[in-house]
Amino acid sequence: MAAPTAQIRPYVEEDRKLALFMISKANFAGLATANNKTYTHPVTIAIWLALSSIFIQYMNWWPSGDFGWISYLKPFPALASLAVPVMFAVDWINRPYFEELTQEALRYGDLKDIKAYYSKNPASGFWLLELGDTFVGLIAVDASKPDVKPRKGEAVQPRTAVIRHFHVEENYRSSDIQNDLLEYAINHAFNKDPTLERIEIADSPLLSYRRSAARKAGFELDHNTKVVGVLRWKLGTRYLERNKWIKST
């Protein structure tokens, strides 16, 4: 039996439900990472231990040694039960940031009619990566971003495309297939539009596979856009200029 073949193919209308679900999943993916990093932060652990100690003291559950080593298990119910509200509080604080990011992505005009939107400019495109019949990832490059006329005294902004959506399923990230998917979108955009000067992509420390792929492709940090979560992680924008892309090809 032949092994399934990997392919990058254009979006078709039958992919709409899958695409919308994966775009939502991609923007919410950072929440799990944010929560896990917050759970293991020294401040969070200190709060959990302090609350547990108060509860153990109140219930008089400190080990007494009266029943040998079994008495040392007395504090464990308090430690376990106090972990639940701490974890709930972390998720409750972090979640709104990622819900907002997801809603921003879903409300953007490209998802009303994906095929029509990404057909406006030859440098734009929306592609799905598949291994046989199995979905692996997706990427969308938007080159129809309108040029903004600079005000008097302002510098002219370069012709820019944006990596609007980018997601690879977790099981396939260890193969670095996301690097190939991003490279495909970059080459398509620059080759199809000679006037395109740079490509931008969102940057997040909570999505390490995307940051790693962007760095490997030559994207540099341009600016930070906002901070999210309990620990105030900085989101940003990275860019790749045509001259740098030409030198790397």
UniProtKB/TrEMBL annotation:
InterPro entries of this UniProt entry?
Acyl_CoA_acyltransferase, GNAT_dom, NAT_camello-type
TM segment ranges? 45-63, 75-93
Query: What's an example of a GO molecular-function annotation for this chain?
Result: N-acetyltransferase activity
Q: Which SUPFAM superfamilies match?
A: Acyl-CoA N-acyltransferases (Nat) (SSF55729)
Listed Pfam families: Acetyltransf_1
Question: Matching PROSITE patterns, A to Z?
Answer: GNAT
* The keyword Transmembrane is assigned to this record: yes
Q: Where is the N-acetyltransferase domain?
A: 85-245
Swiss-Prot/TrEMBL keywords: Membrane, Transferase, Transmembrane, Transmembrane helix
Its protein name is N-acetyltransferase domain-containing protein
> What organism does this protein naturally occur in?
Pholiota conissans
- Please name the taxonomic classification of the source: Eukaryota, Fungi, Dikarya, Basidiomycota, Agaricomycotina
